[in-house]
């Protein structure tokens, strides 16, 4: 136990040191910086120049700690990361082409690892999922929704990283108290990456970027799929753990489809986290860091509470579906309330 503790302390300090060194280098060389002048979406909450170092450090962790054992899976991780990295470098600005390449990588990855969702507890759909082709397409679709949804929610500090920190914390709680989680060591490694990143992200000193959000969600999505396959917990427990980035993605696309002049793949300032920021920024103007992170804190605390409740029902599909419904209903009602509130405050928008 003492050896393990020393190992984890070393990894935490190593990651923290890597962040400081990488940020210093990026700022010194004017490389991989989030320059808000390129996007009104990015300027909305702050306009500081911040190193996009989160993805780089996470990729280093995945290589150094050998997350997925074999070279082929490392190649898949690198491929997912580099798609986002090129977007961060403004070298790959077509969302459609990025999505097409993601689809190819994810399909090959799922097939290679034979990590297929075979049941969603609906008999006539489960019958189709017995066919490998259908299972590959369905599993790939779910993973792609998570990857891109995670990038959607990465709009304010602590949003994406804080969400996955809450999720991983609940899985570790489950592993200790209820059911063993395969590859639990990887989750501890991710926590040791996320803690220093969250500290820096709160003070606006580091961002995940597209590369980081793609990679983090890809790793966690794969681990959760295997968790469900190996333990036979209800698939709706996994859906509940991942509902927020998935629903944010779906809701945003649907919302944009009703705006004829707005393309579904273009960013806007109408996300839930933007509305929370607008509603509370004047009350939090005494602390800039808290002001920019407050939407994430509200959303992630709500999700952590729901995740904790769900721990008692990991095999109870009906109760988990009810909790998912509560989450979606809360999101929609809160969104509409904030939309109305912000419209009344800013009727010109």
Features:
mainly alpha; 72% helix; 349 residues; two-stranded antiparallel sheet
What's the arrangement of secondary structure elements?
Blueprint: H1 2-29, E1 33-34, H2 40-43, E2 50-51, H3 54-64, H4 71-88, H5 95-113, H6 123-129, H7 132-153, H8 159-177, H9 184-202, H10 209-231, H11 235-241, H12 243-257, H13 272-280, H14 288-310, H15 317-345
Antiparallel strand pairs: 1-2
Helix pairs in contact: 1-9, 3-4, 3-9, 3-10, 4-5, 4-10, 5-7, 7-10, 7-12, 8-9, 8-14, 11-15, 13-14, 13-15
> pLDDT below 50 for ≥5 consecutive residues: which ranges?
none
Specify the structural class. Answer: mainly alpha
Number of domains: 1
Radius of gyration: 20 Å
Proportion of beta-strand residues: under 5%
Per DSSP E runs of 2 or more residues, the count of β-strands stands at 2
Distance between the termini: 57 Å
Order of adjacent strands in the largest pleated sheet: 1-2
User: In this structure, how is the largest beta sheet organized?
Assistant: 2 strands, antiparallel
What share of the residues lie within helices? over 70%
Helix and strand pattern: HEHEHHHHHHHHHHHHH
Average pLDDT rating? 90
Shape: globular
| Number of helical segments with 4 or more residues | 15
Description:
With 349 residues, the protein is an all-alpha fold. The protein has one domain. The chain contains 15 helices and 2 strands. It has helices at residues 2-29, 40-43, 54-64, 71-88, 95-113, 123-129, 132-153, 159-177, 184-202, 209-231, 235-241, 243-257, 272-280, 288-310, 317-345, and strands spanning 33-34, 50-51. The chain has a two-stranded antiparallel sheet. α4 packs antiparallel against α10. The longest helix is centred in the C-terminal third of the chain and has 29 residues, at 317-345. The radius of gyration is 20 Å and the shape is globular. The N and C termini lie far apart (57 Å). The model has no long low-confidence stretch (mean pLDDT 90).
């Amino acid at each position: 136990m003492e050896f393990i503790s020393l190992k984890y302390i070393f990894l935490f300090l190593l990651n923290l040191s890597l962040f400081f060194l990488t940020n210093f280098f990026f700022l010194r060389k004017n490389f991989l910086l989030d320059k808000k002048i390129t996007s009104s979406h990015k300027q909305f909450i702050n306009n500081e120049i911040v190193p996009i170092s989160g993805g780089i450090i996470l990729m280093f962790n995945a290589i150094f700690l050998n997350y997925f054992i074999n070279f082929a899976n490392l190649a898949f991780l690198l491929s997912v990361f580099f798609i986002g990295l090129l977007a961060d470098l403004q070298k790959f600005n077509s969302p459609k082409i990025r999505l097409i390449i993601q689809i190819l990588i994810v399909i090959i990855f799922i097939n290679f690892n034979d990590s297929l969702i075979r049941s969603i507890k609906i008999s006539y759909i489960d019958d189709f999922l017995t066919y490998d082709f259908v299972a590959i397409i369905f599993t790939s679709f779910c993973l792609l929704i998570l990857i891109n949804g995670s990038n959607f929610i990465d709009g304010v500090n602590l949003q994406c990283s804080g969400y996955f920190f809450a999720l991983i914390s609940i899985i570790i709680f489950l592993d200790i108290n209820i059911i063993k989680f395969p590859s639990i060591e990887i989750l501890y490694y991710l926590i040791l990456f996320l803690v220093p990143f969250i500290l820096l992200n709160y003070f606006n000193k580091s961002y995940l970027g597209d590369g980081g959000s793609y990679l983090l969600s890809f790793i966690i999505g794969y681990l959760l799929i295997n968790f469900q396959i190996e333990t036979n917990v209800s698939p709706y427990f996994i859906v509940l753990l991942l509902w927020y980035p998935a629903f944010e993605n779906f809701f945003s696309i649907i919302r944009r489809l009703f705006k004829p002049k707005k393309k579904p793949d273009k960013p806007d300032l109408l996300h839930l986290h933007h509305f929370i920021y607008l509603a509370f920024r004047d009350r939090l103007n005494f602390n800039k860091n808290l002001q920019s992170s407050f939407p994430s804190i509200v959303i992630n605390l709500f999700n952590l509470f729901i995740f904790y409740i769900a721990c008692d029902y990991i095999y109870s599909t009906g109760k988990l579906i009810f909790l998912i419904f509560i989450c979606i209903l809360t999101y929609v009602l809160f969104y509409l309330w904030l939309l109305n509130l912000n419209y009344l405050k800013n009727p010109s928008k």
